[in-house]
Amino acid sequence: MRSHYITAGVATAGVLGGAYCAYRLYERTSKVKIPENWTQVGTLKDLYIYPIKSCGAVQVDKAECSLLGLKDGWLRDRFLMIVDNQNNFITARAYPELLLIQPSVKGSVLTLNRANMEPISVNLAEVVSLQKPQTATVWGVTVPVFDCGWSVSEWLSRLIDQSTTNFRLVYYAAQSSRDLRVKSINPIFKFGKDDTGALPDEVPFNLINEASVDDLNTRLEETQVSSRVFRPNFVLSGGKPYDEDNWKFVKIGDNVFEIIKPCTRCIMTTIDPETGIRYPKTEPLETLKTYRQLEDPAARKTAGSSPRMGLQMALRSEPGTLISLNDPIYVA
Length: 332
Known about the structure:
By secondary structure, the protein is of the alpha+beta class.
């Protein structure tokens, strides 16, 4: 009976949340003119979901596009994060070992794997149905969250600082986007109120152009990087280097995205996602700074010296449509 109650409760919440998100999307997209003419620039080579902010990626063949990001059942993009004992989020910028936590989701059960540690599992359906929302902070913004329990808290705390209770795993407890962080507010970037997703830094969809990464590698002297360094959801194959600087909209399969802003890069790109070890000489960030600065002075008010690489995007087509590997990618 308890299991049935949990399933029914979660299903109802999902239906209501989907209807709410669809209404908010209609409200936003009714003000955005979707292009009629598109040019194909390549295909979707890789598709990534990051269940936990700053932790490992799950590579998938297909996923559903929701207003809050990519999803495949309980596998949702950046719906979870790790917080400290003050309920402030932590990231791999300060704790690079987080990148080596490999999440997986089967049904509603999230499992975390890490070398030299026993796996730990959490039933997310039970967390959502049985826990009461609390609050946590991400980039200075207060968000509602569900605590995922003491067992995973102890597992994470042992990994991060050999304690038992200093860190906790939390799950986003809302069906609408959180508020935009103050640092990102700039009139030149047209963020809608529903464009920030659950727990990503700024927006729920990120695209990287493989050709731009290849060009970057020709400029690096001591190391080479892959597209994964930039933690994209979408990897474009077949494009021209930096051609993305000129686009306004991207269409992948039947899914239409508006480009909100270029993705300006931070110290996170200097950490090898495969090893958790920092690249020498703060690369590739230092090389990017030499030729990928934002040119608009108004844009640089919030970006500073952070170089651009990739695109930050928000969904403008109806949520619920699938996106798949090898889908054609069009731009306007």
